[in-house]
Design goal:
Helix content is 18%, strand content 22%. The chain has 8 helices and 18 strands. The chain has a 6-stranded mixed β-sheet, sandwiched between helices. A 5-stranded mixed β-sheet has the order 3-1-8-5-6, with no helix packed on it. The termini are far apart.
Length: 424
């Protein structure tokens, strides 16, 4: 089964918590704090795999989570970092944000892409020891990992795209010019998924061609099968427009040619401007008195597209077509790689400006990621830990902000779920 669109959820690992611990050893009094730091959470990393050609795996496996970091331990031992989770995708996969639709990365190279960075490990209590605070009984927790929903969209990477009506002979042509063996039969929509083939052109030279399932009138609006695969033409530098000039299907070749080009323009106006070479196929069964080929040539050459009469079955004219394709490709830019539309920002820690202060009744509520992280790192049963909490809020300017908001002595202030009476 060919699957070229999938939606998944990813979650990077949470950082390990710092350890509250004190050195305990016989004959050593007041050993002091020795709690170690927590390990880093694992990242979510995407890499390309040349052996994959579909997103089928992501239809059945939709949730991906990296390993959490381990908590710190005594004797200043750091926790183990969580293992990164590596997700393999085919070349040409676009990674998009499911909420905004913005492109995050085009997986068209061998460069790995970090889609979610693991949370940072928390500090152990050994970090907080000072000459005046010699026995801190608190540590910092690890930061949570990132969670997000992604859309994976596969756009095949090919130099040349074979387009045309069903039964025009695209699959037969691909099998004639490459080692690809797509399914071939004498009925519409034989090709149900795109097929890739490497076309040799002399020693050490080749290009990649993609056989795109047949396009019919209305494909850009969802008719037929081809509308699901029009996206795979986007990257093609050159299009070979295969047209059945024999009239064996009872259609007019010139009209077929016009319909396909109209559908390309409806789907993406830039596709209508893409260089084309017209392969007038089935010339071996063209009736002697037929004027189909001459009408097609007149119409295509008016648009600036060269026409080659060929027979994919007998091989007549195919060599000349391939030489023209190779010559045209040499003057075209490389396969397109899309630039990201949104850059992922990896925060090492929430900043003070993330706080929100509002008055709810008689209570001044302080909320946000930064105060949540501070509250989680404090042991409110310990006096020194409470003094550390007070100092952090003071140094960060939270008290100054509260006073600008009108707080007075004796008012109740709630930081997350912790309430205290404000005192100058």
């Amino acid at each position: 089964m060919f699957v070229d669109v999938a939606q998944i959820k990813i979650k990077s690992g949470r950082g390990g918590d710092g350890r509250v611990s004190f050195h305990r050893e016989k004959y050593i009094a007041a050993g002091g704090p020795d709690g170690g730091d927590g390990g880093e959470g694992g990242d979510i990393v995407f890499v390309t795999d040349g052996h994959m050609s579909t997103l089928l795996d992501f239809r059945y496996h939709r949730k991906y989570a990296a390993e959490d970091g381990q908590p710190g331990s005594s004797k200043r031992c750091f926790g183990k970092d969580g293992a990164d989770l590596v997700i393999k995708v085919p070349y040409g996969t676009l990674i998009k944000d499911a909420e905004t639709g913005a492109l995050l990365q085009d997986m068209s190279t061998d460069r790995p892409f970090v889609a979610a960075k693991g949370g940072r490990g928390g500090w152990g209590n050994a970090h907080f020891a000072t000459p005046t605070r010699q026995a801190p009984r608190f540590a910092k927790p690890g930061l949570n990992g990132m969670e997000r929903s992604l859309i994976l969209e596969l756009k095949l990477i090919a130099d040349v795209g074979l387009i045309g009506m069903p039964n025009a002979g695209k699959s037969t042509l691909l099998s004639a010019i490459s080692a690809a063996r797509p399914k071939i039969a004498d009925y519409p929509f034989t090709t149900l998924s795109p097929n890739l083939g490497v076309v040799p052109v002399g020693e050490g030279s080749s290009f990649v061609a993609a056989d795109i399932p047949g396009i019919i009138e209305g494909a850009a609006e969802g008719a037929g099968l081809g509308h699901d695969f029009l996206r795979h033409i986007d990257r093609c530098r050159l299009l070979i427009h295969v047209v059945d000039v024999s009239g064996s299907e009872g259609r007019d070749p010139a009209e077929d040619f016009e319909i396909i080009n109209r559908e390309l323009a409806s789907y993406n106006p830039q596709l209508a401007m893409r260089p084309q070479i017209v392969a007038a196929n089935k010339c071996d069964v063209l009736p002697p008195d037929s004027d189909h080929l001459s009408h097609l040539k007149k119409q295509a050459e008016t648009m600036g597209f060269p026409v080659f009469g060929i027979s994919a079955v007998t091989g007549a004219g195919v060599s000349e077509l391939i030489q023209k394709v190779w010559l045209t490709l040499s003057g075209l830019p490389p396969v397109a790689v899309y630039a990201p539309e949104e850059k992922i920002e990896f925060e090492e820690a929430p900043e003070v400006r993330d706080i929100k202060i509002e008055k709810i009744g008689d209570v001044y509520q302080v909320s946000g990621r930064w105060p949540e992280r501070i509250v989680a790192s404090v042991n409110f049963d310990d006096y020194e830990s409470r003094m550390y909490f007070h100092k952090v809020l003071q140094n960060a300017g939270v008290f100054d902000i509260l006073e600008k908001e009108g707080v007075k002595q004796g008012d109740t202030v709630r930081v997350c779920d912790i309430e205290f009476e404000y005192v100058y």
